[in-house]
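It is time I had a proper look at our fold encoding. Can you supply me with one protein entry, sequence and fold together? It will help me judge whether the discrete encoding reads sensibly. Leave the record below and I will have a look:
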Amino acid sequence: MLLELVAYAIAVLLTAGCVRVHYQAMKLLEARAATKTPGPSLVWLVGGLMVAHALEIWLFGAAYYVLAGTPFGSIHAGSTLLDSVYFSAACYTTLGIGDLYPVGPLRAIAATEGLVGLIFIAWSASLVFLHLQKRLEW
């Protein structure tokens, strides 16, 4: 029970880190995209958002890698850093758990990551929509 609570606390810290990364990236990207013509500004904005999402996936992936093999559990059938990042990407994008899956309290972090990814992808989509609405004539 205590390990699950600690796992949720770790998930909250990871979420806070991701919020910081995503907010700062969106702020920087929107300011930069506003100075470019519509076509290149959209490429800049979407490309930068993809990098931000990748950083967030790697943040969770690094946490899985560090915590795997401890009392927090493991990622079944995955033992490398790239396995952890792959698992993180599957959780973040809410594709679902397939060939790799968490065992033990790591499940709490994986469940939280699915919510983080869902919210952040929608947050990014709303920024792109608002950018297009401001910059393009329909």
Summary: Helices lie at 2-33, 38-67, 81-92, 106-135. The mean pLDDT is 92. The CA atoms of residues 76 and 101 lie 5 Å apart.
